[in-house]
Amino acid sequence: MSDVTNEPLRKTPINDRHRAAGGKMVPFGGWDMPVQYTGLADEHNAVRTRAGLFDVSHMGEIRVKGPKAFEVVQRLTCNDVAALDDGKIQYSAFLTDRGTFVDDLLTYRIAQDDYLLVVNASNTPKDVAWAKAAEQDGVTITDESPEWGQLALQGPVAEKVLQPLVSVPLAEITYYRFAWGDVCGVRCIVSRTGYTGEDGFEVYCPADSAAKIWDAILEAGKADGVIPAGLGARDTLRLEAKLSLYGNDIDDTTTALEADLGWIVRLKKGDFNGRAALLAQKEAGLTRKLVGFEMTGRGIARHGHPLTVAKTGGAGIVTSGTQTPTVGKAIGLAYVPIDSIAVGTELLVDIRGKSVPAVVVPTPFYKRKS
Predict the structure, then answer these.
(1) Where do the domains of the chain lie, and which CATH numbers do they carry?
(2) What's the pLDDT tens digit per position in 320-336?
(3) 315-341 b/e with 16+ CB inside 10 Å = b?
(4) FRET label pair with 359: which of 165, 167, 233, 313, CA 20 to 30 Å apart?
């Protein structure tokens, strides 16, 4: 999503690398970012079949440290931080008192008294303020975003390409875990989460080392066809894997239960922001939910397109949609009435005044073979 603002666009530590590689630069969340280099489909397919390297240094990093760090993060986020041990990561969210999204995020437990919260770029100032409002004796909450660079190598050959550059055994970093290690001689966090539906790693490095590590990864991956990838491919890849995007599929008008993210909500863990509202919504019953669909008529649904349920006339809204390279179909996500979430439900999407048929399908649209 592009921002309309008078503020100058911020640049990641490797902005010059994007321009030298011919990246098509666009405003994104207040940052000057590459939407593509060689082409969206080429970069998307590289990630699915080889690997692509993303610059995600625009993401925000909030550090929560101190004897009360656990209690503060447990209250701030909806997932159960007690399930984490050192080196484990959790997908979670900051929620409003209404159970809607301030932001989705990753919680990294560095130690019992030390957590790194990784948030969306455009939301970083808001998220920092939201977190700092919970600051108390026994905890410090710091915006460390300017100190970090973040690179994501995603795809089937990611481990093979990255391992020679890293001092720790990558095979021992299992899914949703991380370790400290040297990358190109620089102390970094190396994690294994991903936002593409493929295996892959994130390297959190000092900002002034990002360019050196970016160059080294591309050089190491040259023989395996690793290429830089931009925001366009990142979006089609995450949609195929049914990974939500803040500002499209989730925001401060949608609750975690409506967004089909009930699995990150731990209502039994004790009190947290939004818990009372989610308990009430669960008791009353949902009125809508996020589902996946594919177009059966000619047309591509886009964010904001209204839709109706063919049989009942119930109203809904498209949150994400495009034609994706791997699935090879026009697919999307939409909020639909709760009585219309069943697979096979026929929808009519309003595309420029024309009702185009679609159907609810199972998600994720794509799942890699393990």
Answers:
(1) 1-284 (3.30.1360.120), 287-361 (2.40.30.110)
(2) 999 999 999 999 999 99
(3) ebebbbbbbbbbbeebbbbbbbbeebb
(4) 233
